[in-house]
Design a protein that fits this description.
6-stranded parallel beta sheet; globular; binds NADP nicotinamide-adenine-dinucleotide phosphate
């Protein structure tokens, strides 16, 4: 089974990016600027934001994280987003999700200038993506596309089954695979007989958030397995695929950690 090593490709892409940033800085007179708004103290979000902060600094991007209290008001957050929209030294704005309870996620994400929406969650950007006019796609599915391309995984005419229908992974993943001429099925918690559906899939993308949920014996011989899930268990981080026995059936798979996760950050930058 071929390991689709996201860590290695992410390092390669980040090195190329650092060169691009250095050249851009000389031309533009400043480094590109990325500001992250982190409200509350969700430990997983704090870890993700620290990784983004470190990776941005390494690439020479001017990164700023505004760490805000969980009880920040919607108006205060809106005012901060508007100030960043108007700030010419800020090229990218990211509101870290999930937001603390009581804050209207749609309202706040909609307030970001679509041209600074690095996550690609603004309805202008997600709508444009579905009309094949997208300038920016959500980082996780876009990172997966880079990884598939790096490993020359054939997509045209292949049956891809995506398990999970979130706005940040499943739905944009479907469009990106469709653009590369895959035949796409999206499965979710109401899908009947998932094992049979997966038994016909050439490519399986799992974005469920349940440790070891997808069993190797559900899969077709030669399937390509993309594991988006990040699940913290006692022994550390695991994905949504049951790793045991996977190498007997799959042609290729992304490990967790070291697969999709690092590609998400590299693609964001
Ligand atoms: P989400 O919004 O919670 O979506 C989970 C999806 O799984 C839902 O569509 C749900 O169906 C579906 N599902 C739940 N139980 C199922 C079942 N028994 N059979 C089939 N489908 C089922 O999650 P998300 O934000 O997309 O994230 C998914 C996972 O990916 C999480 O572990 C998250 O931490 C991880 N993640 C990783 C990265 C990365 O960079 N590696 C990025 C983003 C997310 P319904 O819609 O019917 O409820």
């Amino acid at each position: 089974m071929e390991i689709l090593d996201g860590k290695a490709l992410a390092l390669k892409r980040r090195a190329a990016l650092a060169e691009w940033v250095a050249a851009h800085r000389d031309k533009a007179g400043r480094a590109p600027g990325l500001t992250v708004l982190l409200a509350g103290d969700d430990p997983a979000s704090a870890t993700y934001v620290r990784s983004k902060e470190k990776a941005a600094a390494k690439a020479g991007i001017q990164g700023e994280v505004q760490r805000l209290p969980a009880d920040i008001s919607e108006n205060e957050l809106l005012a901060r987003i508007e100030a960043l929209n108007a700030d010419e030294t800020v090229d990218g704005i990211l509101v870290q999700l999930p937001l603390p309870q009581g804050l209207d996620e749609d309202l706040l994400l909609d307030a970001i200038d679509p041209s600074k929406d690095v996550d690609g969650f603004h309805p202008i950007n997600s709508g444009a993506l579905w009309q094949q006019r997208g300038q920016v796609a959500p980082c996780t599915p876009q990172g997966i596309m880079h990884l598939l391309a790096e490993h020359s995984i054939e997509l045209s005419g292949q049956h891809a089954v995506i398990v999970g229908r979130s706005n940040i992974v499943g739905r944009p993943m479907a469009e990106l695979l469709l653009q590369q001429h895959a035949t796409v099925t999206i499965a979710h918690s109401r899908t009947r007989d998932l094992p049979s559906l997966l038994g016909g899939a050439d490519i399986v993308v799992a974005a469920v958030g349940r440790p070891g949920f997808i069993q190797a014996n559900w899969l077709k011989e030669g399937a390509v397995c993309i594991d988006v899930g990040i699940n913290r268990i006692e022994d550390g981080l695991v994905g949504d695929f049951e790793w045991q026995g996977l190498d007997q059936v799959a042609r290729a798979a992304t490990p967790v950690p070291g697969g999709v996760g690092p590609m998400t950050i590299a693609t964001l930058l």
